Amino acid sequence: MSFTSKKLAEAYDQIADDYHRDHAKDTWDNDFLEDFSGRLAKGSTVLDLGCGPGIESEKLVKKGFHVTGFDISENLLKIAHEKAPEAAFIHGDMLEPLPFSSGQFDALFAKASLLHVPKAKIEPVLREIARVTKNGGIIHIAVKKGHGEEEVAENDYGYEYKRWFSFWQPEELEAKFAAADLDIIEKGVWQNPGRKTIWLKYILKKRES
User: Fold this and answer.
1) Could you say which DSSP state residue 98 is in?
2) Which residues are registered as beta bridge partners of 91?
3) pLDDT digits 0-9 by tens, 140-190
4) Which residues contact 60 (CB under 8 A, 6 or more apart)?
5) How do strand 105-111 and strand 45-49 relate by DSSP bridges?
6) Beta-bridge mates of residue 71
7) CB 170: neighbour CB atoms within 10 A?
8) How wide is the angle at C-alpha 197 spanned by C-alphas 183 and 114, nearest 5°?
9) CA 153 centroid distance within chain
10) Would you say residue 1 has pLDDT above 60?
11) Span between the terminal Cα atoms of the chain, in Å
């Protein structure tokens, strides 16, 4: 099966409430959220790209940042509005040009969202990430380690739903970062004991032009 943004949006609209309950207490990326936050001044503008139900947006607001969340699922955004009413939330597709001006954000946070971008589309997405982030701005990205890409059927919520996943090897992804003028500051690998998913986590800096 091939990827379409419509199918991804429909999947997340379908699972929104269950997904939120399942991930509301996730802590596996808190170390990189702290690293990311520690590099920013209070009042910094942050784009939470692929914000989902606003779990990380809420954490970022509590750090004193001005947060804008962006997501493809209207149902997830409804939850995000409730979780982080101080943030602004925008519905859209990151495979399209982002509706923000160049250099609009001091920093960009993309936890577990670029993993849904087809590999053929990752370069323009990274270029858009670089465009909307100011020169020298900080970017966090976390994706799943692996090979290839595919539509994955799941039924862990008691019903079937399907989502597209792209899996990355570090050297493969890091070459894409370099091509988009994103320099690596920190990186890490994390795996929950007893689970097969391995996360690749990065703190990046937009290269000064």
Assistant:
1) P
2) 71
3) 999 999 999 999 999 999 999 999 999 999 999 999 999 999 999 999 999
4) 33, 37, 46, 48, 67, 87, 109
5) parallel
6) 91
7) 13
8) 40
9) 21
10) no
11) 40
* Mean pLDDT, range 109-134, rounded to an integer: 98
Beta bridge partners of 206: 182
Q: In 3D, which of 39, 33, 72, 37 has the Cα closest to residue 53? A: 72
Distance of alpha carbon 89 from alpha carbon 156, whole angstroms:
28
Q: In the 8-state DSSP scheme, what is residue 61?
A: H
What secondary structure letter does DSSP report for 96? Answer: S
* Cα separation, 186 vs 202, whole angstroms: 6
**Which phi and psi angles does 151 have, rounded to 5°?**
-85, 130
Write the CA distances from 199 to 15, 29, 86, 100, 176, integer angstroms.
22, 9, 29, 28, 17
Instruction: Check: CB of residue 105 under 8 Å from CB of residue 132.
Output: yes
Pairing of strands 66-71, 88-91: parallel
User: DSSP secondary structure string, 131-163?
Assistant: HHEEEEEEEEEEEEBSSSEEEEEE-TTSS-EEE
Q: What's the length of the chain?
A: 209
d(C-alpha 203, C-alpha 193), whole Å: 23
The number of C-alpha atoms within 13 Å of 144 and in the hemisphere containing its C-beta is 20
Sheet with 105-111, edge to edge strand ranges? 88-91, 66-71, 45-49, 105-111, 133-144, 198-206, 182-191
- Residue ranges of domains in the chain, CATH in brackets: 5-206 (3.40.50.150)
Q: Which residues contact 127 (CB under 8 A, 6 or more apart)?
A: 180
